Amino acid sequence: MKILFICSGNNKSGIGSIVRNQGESLARTGVEVEYFAIAGKGIINYLKNVFILKNKIKKESYCLFHAHYSFSGFAAALAGCKPLVVSLMGSDVHKNNFFRSLINLFARHFWQATIVKSVSMEKCLHLRHAHVIPNGVDIDLFKPSDRKESMEKSGFADGINIIFVADPARPEKNYALAKDAVERMGDPRIHLHTIFGKSQQELVWYYNAADMLLLTSLWEGSPNVVKEAMSCNLPIVATDVGDVREIVYQTPGCFICLYSVNDLIGGIQKVIRLGKRTNGRERISELQLDSKAIAKKIISVYNEVLKATSNPD
Questions:
Q1: How far is residue 255's CA from residue 248's CA, in Å, rounded to a whole number?
Q2: Of 112, 111, 75, 70, which is closest to residue 91 (Cα–Cα)?
Q3: Looking at domain 147-286, what is its CATH homologous superfamily?
Q4: What phi and psi, each to the nearest 5 degrees, are found at residue 191?
Q5: Domain edges within the chain
Q6: 2-136+290-310 with 147-286: one CATH topology?
Q7: Domain 2-136+290-310: which topology?
Q8: pLDDT tens digits, 246-296
Q9: Do residues 305 and 311 make contact, with C-beta atoms less than 8 angstroms apart?
Q10: Does the predicted model carry a pTM greater than 0.85?
Q11: pLDDT tens across 107-144, in order?
Q12: 3-state secondary structure the chain
C-alpha cells in the first residue's frame, strides 16, 4: 500500500514530529509512506500548493492520500486527491464558525474519511461518522530510564523539577498560568523548565529527570506530551482539556485541575507529597495507545475507505 501524507512543512525541523512519527509507525507495518510538505502558512499559501500537488499526483500513483489538519485537507481535496483521509488535530476545533462549517462541508462531500483525536473534538465539530483515533506514543522510546543519567543529560539541578513541554509563546498553551502558580508557591526548591524544540530522544531524558509534567493548555486534541510522560511514569498535573481526563483516569500521581492558580498549586503539592513515580505506563498499555496499536487502527480506516471506493454501490 502506497500512501501520500499531505501536511505542513513549516515546522522548524520541516514536518512536525507527530505526523512524522505516525508515518514511521505505519512504515514499520509495511505501508509505503511518502510526504508532501506544504510550504508557507495561511490559506493563501495552502492554495498555492494545490497546483504543485495536482502535478505531483498526475506523475505518481498512490493507493490513498492522508492529509493532516484541515488546511491540508482542503488543499488535498482541491488538488483532486482521492480517496482522501483527513486527520483533524486539536487546533482545528478552535477555528471560527466559518472554518468549522467549511470543515463539515469538506468532511461530508470531499473527504472519504475523517479522523479526530478525541470524542470531545467529534462533538465540538458536529462531525458524523468520524473515526476517533488519538495519536500514538512510541513506548519503545518513551520508557523509564536511569534517573541519575537523565538528570545529567538534561542539566537539571537537585530540587523539584517541573517541566512545561511546549513553546511558552503559544497562547493556547497558557504558560502564564503555570508560571503564576509556581511563582505564587514561593518554594526555592521548585524549578520550572520550559522544554520545546527538542528531539524525541532528548525529551525522554527530560521526562525521566523531571518530578512532574505541568500542562495548562486552553485546548488540545490528544496531547502527546501526556502520553509520553505517562509512558515514562512521570506524575502529571493538567487542565481538563482534550482527552487528558480519559487518559490519566484514576492513575495515582496524575491530577486534573481547574483553570485556577490555587487549584494548580493544590495539584503540584499533591505530587510533591506523593513523592514517587506513577504506573502511567500500564495505563497507556491498557488503552492501547502505543504507536503500533494506533497504526493498526489507521490501516483499518484505510482498508475501509479503499473497499468503499472500489465498490461504490
A1: 8
A2: 70
A3: Glycogen Phosphorylase B; (3.40.50.2000)
A4: -125, 125
A5: 2-136+290-310, 147-286
A6: yes
A7: Rossmann fold (3.40.50)
A8: 999 999 999 999 999 999 999 999 999 999 999 999 999 999 999 999 999
A9: no
A10: yes
A11: 999 999 999 998 888 888 888 889 999 999 999 999 99
A12: CEEEEEEECCECCECCHHHHHHHHHHHCCCCEEEEEEECCCHHHHHHHHHHHHHHHHHHCCCCEEEEECHHHHHHHHHCCCCCEEEECCHHHHHCCHHHHHHHHHHHHHCCCEEEECCHHHHHHHCCCCCEECCCCECCCCCCCCCHHHHHHHHCCCCCEEEEECCCCCCHHHCHHHHHHHHHHHCCCCEEEEECCCCCHHHHHHHHHHCCEEEECCCCCCCCHHHHHHHHCCCCEEEECCCCHHHHHCCCCCEEEECCCHHHHHHHHHHHHHHCCCCCHHHHHHHCCCEHHHHHHHHHHHHHHHHHHHHCCC
